[in-house]
Write a structure and sequence with these properties.
The chain is built from 14 helices and no strands. The chain is mostly helical and about 400 residues long.
C-alpha cells in the first residue's frame, strides 16, 4: 500500500513494526502509536489556532477599515507568537477566596472541549479518528463541556460579575442546544445515520441545497453556543466588565481565547461536514488524502469567516431578546422544519433527484415564509397592544 493513498495506516504500521522489533508488546505498541497520533493532531490544531489569531485580527481589521498586524514579521505573521510570549511572562494571579480547583480547571476544560470534538471529524476518506455511529450526539455532548468550563470559571472566581456571566451561559446552553440538536437530525434523516463519515458519503447533493433553512438555523445556534456576538452575553464588557473571565490573567486567559477561536473554526468544520459535503468536492478527494484535508479546511474556513462576519457586524442583544428569539421563534421553527423535512423525505424518497431537491427547497421556502408571517403578525399585535397601553398616558399630558 502506498503511503500517499493511506498515510496514517502506513505510518502506524511502520511505527508499530519498529516498536515490536525493539521487544515491546504488540498491544502496548498499538496504544503508544495511537497516543502519538493523537498528540500530533493536537499539536497541529494548536499551530492552526495560533494562525487563527492572525486571521481573525486581519479580517476584523478589513471590516473596520484598518490594516491589522503588519509589523512583526512579514504581513504580521509573527505577531501571534509575540502575543503568546507576552501571555506566558505575565503574572499568573489567583483570587484569594476563589475555589482554586474549579478556577484552575476551567481553562483546561475550555480547550479540551474543543480538542475532543476533532475525534469524530473525518479529515479524508481514509483518515478518520473515532468512527462513532452516534457522532451527531457526541457533538452536542462534547460541546457542552465548553459551556461547563465557563460556568466553572464564573463560580470558581468568587466574583459577582463572573458569576453572572456563568449564569448567562447556562441560559444560552439550555436555549440554543434545542434547535441545534433538532437541526442535527435533518442530515441524519437524509443520510440514515448519525455517523459523520456516513453523512459525508451520502451527500451526492450537498444538504445545504436540500435544507438551506436547516443550515441557517444550525449556524445561528452554533454562534450562540460559541458565545460570540450577537450572543456574547457571558462576557459582555459593557455590563459585566468582561464577565466570566474577568479574574483570569496570563495563559489561563489565553487558553479561553484560544479555545474560543478554535471552537469557532471547529463549528465551521461541522457546518461543512453536515451541509456542504465535508471533504468531498467533485471527486477531488479521491486523488489524495492530503487534498481531501485541504478541501475540508477551506470549507471550514469559509464557515469560520461567516461566523467572524456576523460577530463583527452585529451588536450584542439583550438576554430577554435572545431568549424570546429562541423559545418563541427559533425552536418552534426548528421543530416545524424537522417535521416537514421528515414528511417530504418520506413522500419523495422514490422520486428522481431533481424532483427530490426541488421539493425540499420549496418546502424550506414555504416553512420559512410561514414562520416569518406568523412572527410579523405577532410583532404587529404586540406593538399595537403596547402602544394602546401608552396612549392614555400621552392623552393626559
Amino acid at each position: 500500500m502506498s503511503f500517499w493513498n493511506d498515510p496514517l495506516k502506513v505510518a502506524a504500521g511502520w511505527l508499530e513494526g519498529i516498536l515490536t522489533g525493539w521487544g515491546m508488546n504488540a498491544i502496548a505498541a498499538h496504544v503508544l502509536t495511537v497516543f502519538l497520533g493523537v498528540l500530533i493532531l493536537i499539536v497541529l490544531l494548536m499551530v492552526l489556532d495560533i494562525f487563527l489569531v492572525w486571521i481573525e485580527r486581519k479580517v476584523v481589521a478589513r471590516f473596520q477599515d484598518r490594516l491589522g498586524p503588519n509589523r512583526v514579521g512579514p504581513f504580521g505573521l509573527i505577531q501571534p507568537f509575540a502575543d503568546i510570549i507576552k501571555l506566558i511572562i505575565k503574572e499568573d494571579t489567583t483570587p484569594a477566596n476563589a475555589d482554586k480547583a474549579l478556577y484552575n480547571l476551567a481553562p483546561i476544560l475550555s480547550m479540551m472541549s474543543v480538542l475532543i470534538l476533532w475525534a469524530i471529524v473525518p479529515l479524508a476518506p481514509v483518515m478518520l479518528g473515532t468512527d462513532l455511529n452516534v457522532g451527531a450526539l457526541f457533538l452536542i455532548a462534547a460541546g457542552a463541556i465548553g459551556t461547563l468550563s465557563i460556568i466553572m470559571a464564573g463560580w470558581g472566581s468568587n466574583n459577582k460579575f463572573a458569576l453572572l456571566g456563568g449564569f448567562r451561559q447556562v441560559a444560552v446552553m439550555i436555549s440554543f442546544e434545542v434547535p441545534m440538536l433538532t437541526m442535527l437530525l435533518i442530515p441524519t434523516i437524509f443520510a440514515g445515520s448519525m455517523n459523520m463519515n456516513a453523512i459525508i458519503n451520502a451527500q451526492n447533493v450537498w444538504y445545504v441545497w436540500l435544507s438551506p433553512l436547516g443550515a441557517l438555523i444550525f449556524l445561528i445556534a452554533a454562534i450562540a453556543e460559541l458565545g460570540r456576538s450577537p450572543f456574547d452575553l457571558a462576557e459582555g464588557e459593557s455590563e459585566l466588565v468582561s464577565g466570566f473571565n474577568i479574574e483570569y490573567s496570563g495563559m489561563k486567559f489565553g487558553m479561553f481565547y484560544a479555545g474560543e477561536l478554535l471552537h469557532a473554526f471547529t463549528y465551521g468544520g461541522f457546518l461543512a461536514i453536515l451541509f456542504f459535503g465535508g471533504y468531498r468536492f467533485f471527486g477531488l478527494e479521491q486523488v489524495s488524502p492530503f487534498l481531501a484535508i485541504l478541501i475540508l479546511i477551506l470549507k471550514a474556513m469559509f464557515g469560520y469567516w461567516v461566523i467572524m462576519w456576523v460577530k463583527y457586524t452585529m451588536m450584542r442583544i439583550r438576554i430577554d431578546q435572545m431568549l424570546s428569539f429562541n423559545w418563541k421563534f427559533l425552536t418552534p421553527l426548528s421543530f416545524a422544519l424537522l417535521l416537514v423535512t421528515a414528511l417530504m423525505n418520506a413522500l419523495l424518497s422514490s422520486a428522481p433527484t431533481w424532483l427530490y431537491v426541488s421539493g425540499m427547497i420549496l418546502a424550506n421556502i414555504l416553512t420559512g415564509w410561514i414562520a416569518l408571517e406568523i412572527a410579523r403578525s405577532a410583532t404587529r399585535q404586540e406593538r399595537e397592544r403596547t402602544e394602546g397601553i401608552k396612549q392614555p398616558a400621552e392623552v393626559r399630558h
